Amino acid sequence: MDGYRRRVMDDLLKKKLQAKGAVLIEGPKWCGKTTTAEEIAASKVLLARADVKSNFKSLLEIDADAALSGEAPMLIDEWQTVPKLWDAVRYTVDHRRQMGQFILTGSAVPDRNAEKEREHSGVGRFAWLTMRPMSLYESGESNGTVSLAELFSAPQKLLERNKLKLQDVAFLICRGGWPMSVGLPEEAALEQAFDYYDAVTKEDVTKVDGVKRASARVQRLMRSYARHQGTQTSIATLKEDLKNNDVVTLDEDTIRTYLDALQKIFVVEDMPAWNPNLRSKTAIRSADTRYFVDPSIATAALGLGPADLMNDLNTMGLLFETMCVRDLRVFAEVMYGKVYHYRDKNGLECDAVVHLRNGQYGLIEIKLGGETLINDGVKTLLALSAQIDTTRMNAPAFKMVLTAAGEYAYRRPDDGVYVVPIGCLKP
């Protein structure tokens, strides 16, 4: 497992350190940010320890040069707990005029307005890296026989074997991509997601901004959010769902502030809409799609296990989509790309669009598997592809149905659509 994570994230971190004076790694707690940074850092300050934080904060105020004098690259973990640190690091980077000086890691965004100011002041000095729970390739469950990057060159032939069965995928959805869960006995591995859920709802959602939030209310909202994974559900709909499923409800403003807190600690990561050039004047829905950063958060919120998913394939399909989105986001990060969602007023919907900064993009439909569902996905991909105005933008580099089950990854000879089990995919 460690080897996979180093291969995917360490190389990207090294590249970013070569290009900027400092790298800021953000993402949910327990996803491996500190461990990954420690593999590369030459010195470190771990501010999660109260005594270390107190001493470092005092030293930073008295003598910033001394506080930041560690051997480069210097790791500073949970940097956001010392607000003056950002400007001190920025000044030091400017003064030294050398690349790869600092790695800052954090599991919370302290303030959105302040964050926008930091992004502006960090231009040219900082690189940003988002780390998420591990993809199946990083945790060793995917055999990595199909490269997402290589699909952009549209290979004519593809035939690779998949080792994961549907039952395996059900377990992996519930286990999640938490590094500490990999390799544990099944029951212990599944418990990690519940521990994470408890930590979020009982402590983290309040610690992020000091606003006291009732754990029971956070749990109810997260259950409602889990029921609407992969949709563009509005705040009003979430409120109505809470009213229908719980005795006590929340008003829309409260729901919005709760979701903002969950976003700040990287529990939820909604997907923006893709806006292509189309041949016809079709209204594109611009609302973000709702996702947790890892599918196991949803199963923990709903109290579900692998057997529950196998007995309810509709729910499993929604949560499998969340897992695929997680993996595609991890891979897109490595490829300097972004993942989007498409939906128009006529109901045509594409689960994921991986768009690279060179303008290339791939269209992806996510299905559990089976001939009927795969054919449905292919139909959607071909319909959307036919609407794209290729005189104003590139044609899709590839079209793919990403599946949970299936013995092989292959290219369909009649329409060129790739059918790839998630157990074969890598960056």
Total count of helical runs of at least 4 residues: 16
**In the residues, how many domains can be counted?**
2
Alpha carbon gyration radius: 22 Å
User: Order of strands side by side in the largest beta sheet?
Assistant: 7-12-13-11-10-9-8
How many angstroms does the end-to-end distance come to?
A: 16 Å
Order of helices and strands: HEHEHHEHEHEEHEHHHHHHHHEEEHEEEE
- Taken as a percent bin, the fraction of beta residues is 15-25%
The class by helix and strand makeup works out as alpha/beta
The global form is globular
The major β-sheet equals: 7 strands, mixed
The counted number of beta strands is 14
Average residue-wise pLDDT: 92
Low-confidence stretches: none
| Relative helix content | 40-55%
Can you describe what's shown?
With 427 residues, the chain is an alpha/beta fold. It has 2 domains: 2-130, Rossmann fold, CATH 3.40.50.300; 146-426, no CATH class. The protein has helices at 2-19, 33-40, 50-62, 64-67, 85-96, 112-122, 148-151, 166-175, 186-207, 215-227, 235-245, 252-264, 295-302, 306-310, 313-334, 371-387; strands at residues 22-26, 43-46, 74-77, 102-106, 126-130, 146-147, 159-161, 337-343, 349-356, 361-367, 398-403, 408-411, 418-421, 425-426. Strand 12 and strand 13 (418-421) form a beta hairpin. Helix 1 crosses helix 2, helix 9 (186-207) packs across helix 10 and helix 9 (186-207) crosses helix 13. The longest helix is centred in the middle third of the chain and has 22 residues, at 186-207. It is globular and about 70 Å long. The mean pLDDT is 92.
Short précis:
This protein is an alpha/beta fold.
